[in-house]
Amino acid sequence: MHTFIIALISLSVTALSNVPAGADVHEDNGQVTINPDPTANDTVPPDLPITATIFSGVPGPSKCRGKVVLRLEISPPTTNETGQIQGERKCWNMLQPVGCGNFVASKQAGCEARLFSEPNCQMYLNTAVFIPELRAVGGWWRSMDVKCGIPPPDPETLGEPPLQGGLIRNKTV
Question: Can you give 67-85 as a three-state secondary structure string?
């Protein structure tokens, strides 16, 4: 009986040693909730490389599955004499149909990948926006084009979300 209790105590101590650095651990009623440090991802390096990694499989719960089919490292967009960012679209054909990709870049790079179901960037399917973290983008595509240097949308010109009025309800008591 005593050996069993000691084993349980050593298991819980071992589990807490695997907590990421800077995580905040709260214990409540025997349940453990781990909250990562909220400031950990606030500063993204400005020189974050622009990469697209394409996999043969489909997205899993958190990562792409399968073998790496293509890994692109894209040069950052250039600016012209007037200070405008210039970027060209370039089309890449896959050797086989692919089902998942990670598109990573800083938000300042303004990159997007348009995904197509046919070779030579024909039959548009979806757009993947490059973000500063690994997040699986699923689909089934045969080609894609990438462009960087796209300016972010102006929040003032976007207006209110079209369904916002229908989703917010006034609570009357």
Answer: CEEEEEEECCCEECCCCCE
Helix (H) / strand (E) element for 156: namely helix 155-158
Model pTM greater than 0.70? Answer: no
pLDDT in tens, 57-88: 988 877 899 999 999 998 887 777 776 666 77
Radius of gyration of the chain (CA): 23
Alpha carbons 25 and 34: distance in angstroms, whole number: 5
Domains contained in the chain, CATH given: 50-147 (2.60.20.30)
Close Cβ partners of 77 (under 8 Å, ≥ 6 residues apart)? 85, 86, 87, 109, 110, 148, 149
pLDDT digits (tens, 9 = 90+) for 95-130: 999 999 999 999 888 899 999 999 999 999 999 999
